[in-house]
Amino acid sequence: MDEVPTAPTAPASPPGAPEERHTSVGAVVLVVVGVILGFVALVLVAVGVVLLWGHTTQRDADGFFNTPTVRLETTSYAITSEEIDLGAGAEEQFVRDFGDIATVRLRADAAGEKPVFVGIARRDDADRYLGGVDRAEVDGIRTDPFSVGYSYRDGSAPSTPPGDQDIWAASTHGAGPQTLEWRPASGRWVMVVMNDDASRGVSVDASAGVKVPWILGIGIGLAAAGGVAVVIAVVLLVVGLVALARRQPIHLGGPEPGTDRPVAVEGRLDAEPSRWIWIFKWLLLIPHYIVLAVLWVAFWFVSVIAFFAILFTARYPRALFDFNVGVLRWTWRVTYYGYGVLGTDRYPPFSLGRADHPATLEVAYPERLSRGLVLIKWWLLAIPLYLLVGVFLGDGTASGTVGVPAIGLVGLLVCFAAIALLFTGRYPRGIYDLLMGVNRWVFRIAVYTSLMRDEFPPFRLDQGDREPPHEPPHSPQDEVEVEVEVSPPG
């Protein structure tokens, strides 16, 4: 009887082998869209809340938002504002279609005994009237300390009082407090303050206000749209993060086989690195910088969620943990290729999971974390760590950990290494080992301060390609007792 051939079976995975998962482009897209939408949503909510707050608390009884009263004073014949440019045509069409955009109110009270004149005219008309007049133009109002800046134009007295001109779109004049209201229209405008009789020496206390009838509706609309966008963004982020954790080839069983460190950061220096390719790596890495900027925002959100999860359950949610490990792994590959080490010319892959690349990073998943430490380790206990990171990276920010170190120890060492590569074609081993030690320590700090492990990063630089072997604490049981038998003479 002939044997029936059977299909070959896939070799079984060795016991304890890490679970591997396939990359999901859709999950990455969900995370990116969720982060971007979340930013937009927060901006919408913030603007909407500010508008609603202003509408309810900052208006006067007539519905105007008002500036503080300022003293405008000059020995010239007139004070003019800076040009108010409202465009051409579009605003008038908006007014016709949707009603009043806004109403502007100017209040002026003469500081002396002379009646005051306040008017608004088109810039060209005002220039014709005041073209040869000695006047002062306001070029800025400063609040701390308070002062009004003027630019002066020499000239003579005006030919006629301002009230005799027919150039004003809105005006008011007289003794005592004066109020002017004006509905803006398209064009280039200027405000003019003079004495009613066009005499020299103008001094008034003035304020401006604006009434925007549609601000309440806009505030409610923005806040509501932002709230809906926040919900959608959260859903996209959660779905995307969970999908990434499930589908990326992320090791679920601790550090890379062969190491027993909670955090394992390793690299393999190229035998013959290029002399010049490092000059263009900033350009080649732009796509990575863009993606990592989004991923680090997501990393921050995930860490905040993990904070509350650890506080109440003493566990870091596994899917979120795997995602953050992936972000750190991706960051380390970019750092190693780019201006954090310049250790390889192999372009880093766009992946959160393990990859065939000289730079590797693994973080062992903790079964339990301290509820007490989570409250203080990321800020209080980490203060000395942050200070030293500032020395290493130059400014203490995360810029160095995403591959663009600031001018600090890392930046200087990479600069020396780049010069050596350019002129000798060799990477100084001492500089490389020191850079590996610094970067390894920085990533241990990143793991600790992002709440992923409770072990405080030791104050040492473990240099070289590989993590040093773990040395267990010495105990009396480790001592070996040796007996030596000595025979008597003869």
Task: Provide the gyration radius in Å.
Answer: 35 Å
* Number of strand elements: 14
Work out the count of structural domains: 2
End-to-end Cα distance: 83 Å
Mean pLDDT: 81
Query: Which geometry do the CA atoms define?
Result: elongated
Order of helices and strands: HEEEEHEEHEEEEEEHEHHHEHHHH
Please bin the fraction of helical residues: 25-40%
Please give the count of helices. Answer: 11
Oligomer: single chain
Gist of the model:
Helix content is 38%, strand content 17%. By secondary structure, it is of the alpha+beta class.
Describe the structure.
This protein has 490 residues and is an alpha+beta fold. The chain folds into two domains: 65-212, Jelly Rolls; 251-449, no CATH class. It has eleven helices and 14 strands. A hairpin with a 2-residue loop joins strand 7 and strand 8.
